[in-house]
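Structure (tokenized):
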């Protein structure tokens, strides 16, 4: 039998206390959870790129279509804010936003692009992808998580457009989405704009396939978090003893993913000085990916302090990028 991917952090490897606390809290809760924000180490970044390129994962193609074909219209809507800064939360490798940056450049020059990502690796990829063909780009990347960055932004210090693409809002759940949008709103002055990507409700089979691709990239993406715990926190998870289990509820629009223990087992995590007992069939909640309809979108917009300005759709109306303005 092969050994699990496990390692004890060396004395030279500092333990990320925030990561450790998140794992401790999540595995001690009922039901057990692990935070999806920690999916994105170097291997996780590569797996997510593979997910986005998979034939089942329609979200990327839909948003590419919107930004590439309607980028000039979106840029005109955003530039009504005036010169200032464009901040993208969770920028990834920058390939998708390149269409919008080019459209903005065709219409204005006096602005700065500030991509925010928790992954240094993603920010390096972004610069490599964007800068060679865009010498005009004023790039000011920010390494950090959404919340810390939003806390540091003072409303009114400059005109501001925030961008949150890819339907990442769906990962926060119902109340979490409202709370996150309110944090975004707190970094904006009245009249500033938010460009937000939202995945829409559609044929349940299409959605289920997107989170259970035939190549197994989404499965490996979820299981990679167990390998990261092993590597960085000295865990002894055996990823082969957990099953990737996605679910979708068409009524609520919630697509959820779990890791399911295939047997009774004990997992020890040295950095936490604790062991965790799993029963056969016990689930770890990993992520929710909410799908939206017009009623949900309207409620979110209103509750968070925004006014809808314009919505852009792909040809199948599977996805929308919308411009909202901050109101008093």
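Design, position by position:
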């Amino acid at each position: 039998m092969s050994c699990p991917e496990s390692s004890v952090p060396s004395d030279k490897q500092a333990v990320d206390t925030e990561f450790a606390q998140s794992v401790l809290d999540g595995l001690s809760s009922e039901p057990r959870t692990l935070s999806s924000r920690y999916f994105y180490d170097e291997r996780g970044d590569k797996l997510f790129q593979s997910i986005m390129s998979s034939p089942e994962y329609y979200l990327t193609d839909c948003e590419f279509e919107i930004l590439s074909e309607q980028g000039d219209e979106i840029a005109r809507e955003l530039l009504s804010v005036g010169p200032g800064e464009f901040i993208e939360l969770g920028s990834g490798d920058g390939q998708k936003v390149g269409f919008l940056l080019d459209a903005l450049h065709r219409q204005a020059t006096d602005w700065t692009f500030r991509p925010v990502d928790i992954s240094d690796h993603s920010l390096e990829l972004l610069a490599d992808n964007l800068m060679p063909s865009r010498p005009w780009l004023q790039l000011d990347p920010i390494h950090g998580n959404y919340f810390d960055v939003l806390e540091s932004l003072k409303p009114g210090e400059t005109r501001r457009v925030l961008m949150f693409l890819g339907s990442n809002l769906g990962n926060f759940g119902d109340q979490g989405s409202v709370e996150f949008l309110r944090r975004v709103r707190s970094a904006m002055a009245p009249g500033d704009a938010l460009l937000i990507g939202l995945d829409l409700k559609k044929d349940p089979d299409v959605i289920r396939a997107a989170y259970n691709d035939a190549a197994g990239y989404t499965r490996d993406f979820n299981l990679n978090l167990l390998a990261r715990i092993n590597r960085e926190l000295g865990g002894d998870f055996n990823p082969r003893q957990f099953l990737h289990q996605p679910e979708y509820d068409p009524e609520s629009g919630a697509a959820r993913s779990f890791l399911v223990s295939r047997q009774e087992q004990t997992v020890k995590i040295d950095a936490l000085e604790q062991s965790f007992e799993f029963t056969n069939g016990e689930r770890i909640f990993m992520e929710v990916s909410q799908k939206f309809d017009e009623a949900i979108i309207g409620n979110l917009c209103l509750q968070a302090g925004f006014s809808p300005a314009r919505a852009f759709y792909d040809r199948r109306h599977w996805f929308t990028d919308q411009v909202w303005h901050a109101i008093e």
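Reviewer-requested clarification: The radius of gyration is 20 Å. The CA atoms of residues 223 and 239 lie 6 Å apart.
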